[in-house]
C-alpha cells in the first residue's frame, strides 16, 4: 500500500469512530430524558397525576398554543393539552 492509501484509510476509520461516539452520546441523552420526565403524548392530567403539581406553569403562547410546566428536575412542553417534549434540567456540580 502506498502512503496516500494508508492516510486515507486512517482518516476514514477516524471519521467512522467519531460517528459511532456521537451516535452513542445522542442515544444516551434521549434515554436520560425519557427516564426523567413525562413521555410524548401524555395529557396534562396524566402528567399532573404522575409527577404532581409543577413548580411553575407558564401561560400558553402561539398558535397552536404551547404551554410550559417547570418541575425541579425537568421542563415539560405541551401542544394543546398533550406532551410534545420534556427536557431534563442540567445538574450543577
Keywords:
Beta-lactamase Inhibitory Protein, Chain:B, domain 1, alpha+beta, 45% helix, 93 residues, 4-stranded antiparallel beta sheet
Explained architecture:
With 93 residues, the protein is an alpha+beta fold. The protein has a single domain (3-88), classed as Beta-lactamase Inhibitory Protein, Chain:B, domain 1 (2-Layer Sandwich). The protein has helices at residues 3-36, 44-51; strands spanning 56-61, 66-70, 74-79, 82-88. Strand 2 and strand 3 (74-79) form a beta hairpin. The longest helix has 34 residues, at 3-36.
Give a short summary of the structure:
Helices cover 45% and strands 26% of the residues. The protein contains two helices and four strands; from the N terminus they run ααββββ.
Topology summary:
Blueprint lengths: L2 H34 L7 H8 L4 E6 L4 E5 L3 E6 L2 E7 L5
Antiparallel strand pairs: 1-2, 2-3, 3-4
The overall pLDDT, averaged over residues, is 80
CATH class annotation: Alpha Beta
Form type: elongated
Q: Sheet bearing the most strands, described?
A: 4 strands, antiparallel
Oligomer: single chain
Provide the number of structural domains.
Answer: 1
